[in-house]
Amino acid sequence: MTELRPRRSTPLRLFAALLLAACTPAEPLRFYGLNPLAEPAPAAESGLAIGVVPINLAAYLDRSGIVVRTSPNELAISAQHNWVEPLDAQARRVVARNLAALLGTDRVFILPEQRLLPLDYTVEIAIERFEIVAAGGDGVVALETTPETAVLEARWTLLAGDDRRVLRTAFERQEVGVERPASFEHRVAAMSDALGRLTRSVATEIAARRS
Question: What are the structural domains of the chain?
Fold first, then answer.
């Protein structure tokens, strides 16, 4: 009768697999930043003094990884594709630059750090949703083929003077299609566009009150 002996190849196979994984180069980290409007509508010099307070960001967005919604109830947080700096800080700076260009003023200040003179208006923004939404809802994001949308939901408030009297508050939803192929570069470009559209709404409200 032949004696059965335990196979000894399994540990060797496991060691080889671990060695191969260790030698496989990891995907490099990539960092992205929001950009202001590329070609804002030309505006006459207004000389307005405007303050932008820190943006109130939904807790699920307060992270370095870019958020992609793969189904109505599932979110994917990228480990390799990250914001170059905290999202609330860069969003506030982009809003300030957009307002300056759209309203024709170089006196848009990030509060409280840059408070230099009495303000005509103060802008408050609370971002409730700011993400990429993948189509299909099956939990799989196919970067090369899946149509995607950048979605921004936020509530903005316009206040007057140093006493910050509320002039208007509004909820806004912006959707911008992601250019194909849906790389993270194109995703962030769509998110920048969505934030730019939100800023246009605020600028339009301010301009209407000055006319």
Answer: 43-210 (3.40.50.10610)
